[in-house]
From TrEMBL:
GO cellular component: membrane
Entry keyword annotation includes Transmembrane helix: yes
CDD domains: MFS_NPF (cd17351)
Entry membrane topology: Multi-pass membrane protein
Segments crossing the lipid bilayer: 83-102, 109-128, 156-176, 197-220, 226-251, 353-373, 393-416, 428-449, 469-490, 546-565
Pfam families given in the database record: PTR2
InterPro entries: MFS_trans_sf (IPR036259), POT_fam (IPR000109), PTR2_symporter_CS (IPR018456)
Localization: Membrane
Protein name, UniProt field: Protein NRT1/ PTR FAMILY 8.2
Amino acid sequence: MEVEAAGGGDDMTKYLVSNGSVDIRGRPADKRKTGGWKASPFIIVNEVAERMAFYAIAVNMVTYLVREMHQSLPDAATHTTDWIGAAFVLTILGAFLADAYLGRFLTIVIFSCIYAVGMILLTLSASIDSLRPPPPPCVPGLPGSVCKPATSKQTAFLYTALALIALGTGGIKPCVSSFGADQFDEADKNEAHKKYSFFNWFFFAINMGVLLGITLMVFVEERMGWGWGFGVPTASTVVSVLVLVAGAPFYRFQRPVGSAFTRFAQVMVAACRNHAKGVVVASGGVSEEELYEVKTKESDIVGAQKLPHTSQYRFLDKAAVVTDTKDIGTNRWRLCTVTQVEEFKCFVRVLPVWASTIALSISFAQLSTFFISQATIMDRKLGSHFEIPTGSVSVFGAINALLLVPIYEGFVVPFLRRFTGHRRGITSLQRMGVGLFISIFAFISAAVIEKKRRDHADPTSMSVFWLLPQYFLMGSAEVFTYVGQLEFFYDEATDGTRSLSSAMFLSEIGIGSWLSTAFVKIVERTTGGVEKGWLRNNLNQSRLDYFYWVLCGINVVNFFGYLVVARLYRGKDESYGTVMDAVVIKDEADEKSKVEP
């Protein structure tokens, strides 16, 4: 270990982290004073506030655009879906800046401030009359009622606010989970175990924020108006930034390591150059010529540890073959180190897993579209004096997630661990597979219940609680898949691509939103349009159950495709169909080094 090399008898070194993290003063981080659960609560509070604000907007933005900005329902739904998609796709930008230049903490702080500015502008848009079209007597959406549309300046002001919020989300989301995981030293067995508990509780925090956003904030919006409905989460966002900054003395910080995309491009260019020169790599994965690596203990990627050579993707090994000694240490576009090549391999090998889980994001998109549309025309009464707001129906899925996380962490994991011997009960790939499998039954339930609702004598009198099974199953699928993705993409990332790896699975949500929009349009056009097709303006005349069956079929095909991808997957340890804990890998490597001369 690095600390062993630092000095023989100094007992203080055993308290220093071994992953290169530093404290706020730039010194090697002390485990007794930094990181772990001393630092995590500050990060979790920031996430709760950000998710509450985001979902307070997301579940009501269609209604706001129709009622206040006088947009048509299709336009409002499309604009909202596109905004959500953009917010999650922008995580690639936030991750790039964090890994390359700013570091995760500074990126979170800067983009949280941008987020807060967007929230302030949105609150002003909802509070100042001149920033919205004149209010009724017109009734938006009512045939024959003509509403004055928003001016270009009013629309531009609102869209600027939403753009800043999307940009802020893009910077925060890929960094906050990785920054939280950075607080735990993987080389310390005790801390490594706590890291995976952090992922579960981090997901719990996300759903707590969602729960507050779709219940408390929806209630405030309905009772006190849009200004208060957007103003309260704005205030909580500002406070959460202050809380995040207050925790700085307790954090462990990873230094930025430069642009990963540039390093990826260098590997490809160098590999192609050497291939053109006739460089050959043996079929066993060992180069016929020596692969280049720096002789220092650390890699030449600042802040990143060395990576061992693997035999997969042998073509890329050509980038590390020395063809001209003048290129050593001088030109990465001609000669890369083994670590740089392996970093790119780690990125490439997770792409099939990433692609095989995108279909689930299309299913998740229905939670904020057709699931809500069903609830809108169903009986939402809870007792004789209270009616559940439409935007709060999603609480069924959020509550399920809040209940499942502690049950899974406290009971299921220890139970499974006794049979599998795996510290997390099951591997992250297996956990994702369970989520994909559950999603199939979620849409079987959705299709059956929608058929029952449509055939009911009075569809509008059917209780909204009939939707509970599909929400429960989708919430369960999310618990398994989302946390599994958090674990998988963090574990398989290298030191220089942690945030980028997190952004990859978050971008699935954005891509899923856009694909959902495209899929709906395709179904509309191929089945007869909005007047005669499966998806009509009147949901009682639609065949939404057919639409759900198609989604179910997509999930079935996707599930079996994922099984193939997961089975063939080779992790950093080159084992098939599994992802071992980094600590276990390290321990095995240490044991091996003891017996080898």
